[in-house]
Amino acid sequence: MLKIYFNTFLILSLILLSSCDLKEKKGVQNPQPNIIFIMSDDHAFQAISTYGEKLNLTPNIDKIAEQGAVFTQGFVTNSICAPSRAVILTGKYSHINGKVDNFQSFDWDQENFAKELQKAGYETALIGKIHLNGLPQGFDYSNVLPGQGLYYNPDFIENGKKKRIHGYVTQITTDIALDWLKNKRKKDKPFLLMYHQKAPHRPWMPDSKYLGYFDDRTFSPPANFFDDYQGRPAAATHEMGVVKDMDIAYDLKMFDKEGEIKTRLRWAFKGMYNRMDEEQKAKWDAYYDPIIKKFKEEKLKGKELALWKYDRYMKDYLSTIQSVDEGVGEILKYLDENGLTDNTIVVYTSDQGFYLGEHGWFDKRFMYEESLRTPILMRYPKEIKPGTVVDKLVQNLDFAPTFLDYAGVKIPDDLQGLSFKNLVNGKEKNWRDAIYYSYYEYPAEHHVLRHYGVRTDRYKLIHFYYDMDEWELYDLKNDPHEMHNVYNDKAYVEIRKTMHKKLDQLRSQYKDSDSLDQVNLNRYLEKKRIKKKEIVKK
């Protein structure tokens, strides 16, 4: 009888142990939440179907919002790639963390939120595009693109060792992220995964399986596509127009084998094309060669050429996003299949907004809405109700303190962002009423002047300086597309005074000043080895 009881106990014990082992394989539920921070590059909110613009469908990205929260007023502090990433990591403005433009070095020795999570017991990984020089610090594992990265057969730097990987960059980045989740991380620790895609960054080269994906549509440009910039001299200085600045070969893929289409950036696209293997080239040529042939035959001019450029731009840009959305779906599926969904925070965002023809532009940089505003979607089933809408002013400055807050880690006193944890759960009663923005990368590509400004729920004040001393004021309720600068309008005198006061308050709060702007300009000029007098017109 004793032997029977013992055998029964042994069998039950083995079943229990087997069950526990299965649970571990499905994902250990740590008391601290896991964090997956998904960021793409230049993904305009207009190109996420959750935001209702109807340009494309992004069902997997949308799922994050449907099962969690969508932020309707997410903004950046400096709309350009590397500085935005530095702000996200450090929770500090560009003039504080030192990365004010794409050219200056980033100091990895300074604190970042990944380092803080490591100290709190998190396993951390950074995969994909980071666009910050040097070996990443704060990560147990890193496998990143050097610089901007390439779409086809890209190089990756795995824990400091560079190697080329055959394939398409978006899928490769997803595969590396999944491999880390499945095979490389320690399953008994909470984790932070920063999963960063290159797409849809210029020059918008789709994966071969998505070539022609939008060919059944003709995209009509926004109403202000042919903007004349009246009353906005700073906007008129740009070099990022779809019509006049978009390169036919580099941006729009009219890279003819005969070499008859000669453009300024043809050489750059040639290098990317030659990186493909023969099979990749064959698929690429099968799609683009007929388009090139037709383009050369039609010899479009004027408005017809402008509309053709816009349509071609949108087809390529949106096609690269299909791969991004597909990758998000693979990550969410892994979480579901491994019992990790409930205890994992998932955030989807972009490093900034992007112009999809608004004001006639592509690219970003300006403080106008499409560049300033960035998508933010967030899911955490334990605490966030499905269908939550957050309409407060949130910035990329806020990610670092938010993640630390959720992890139960003390937020360092020198972080300049705010945790939006209580915004999402509806407990926050005293949130900011304005955001501050600053852009430094001038003189440089696209010729966007240096500027800073303040935005509230309704109004926006911008100051363009150095080459120009111009102020712009917008009433976003009456003029959501920012076509009318009302700075000198008598009806807005009191609003102007209020906005100037708010701007001064924020510059003081965030420790910014004209003297710092001058220091950063001098550093930039020194880096580029250009004398100030040669390019700054007083």
Give an overview of the whole structure:
36% of the residues lie in helices and 14% in strands. It is built from 16 helices and 16 strands. The strands form three sheets. Strands 7-6-5-4-8-1-9-10-2-11 form a ten-stranded mixed beta sheet, sandwiched between helices. The chain has a four-stranded antiparallel beta sheet with strand order 13-14-15-16, covered by helices on one side. The chain has a two-stranded parallel ribbon with strand order 3-12. Helix 6 runs parallel beside helix 10. The model is unreliable at 1-28 and 530-538 (pLDDT under 50).
Low-confidence stretches: 1-28, 530-538
What profile does the largest beta sheet have? 10 strands, mixed
Biggest sheet: strand arrangement? 7-6-5-4-8-1-9-10-2-11
Question: Quick one: how many beta strands?
Answer: 16
Gap between N and C termini: 100 Å
Query: Mean of the pLDDT scores?
Result: 92
CATH homologous superfamily placement of the largest domain: Alkaline Phosphatase, subunit A
Q: Structural class, from helix and strand content?
A: alpha/beta
State the CATH class of the largest domain: Alpha Beta
Would you summarize the structure shown here?
By secondary structure, the chain is an alpha/beta fold.
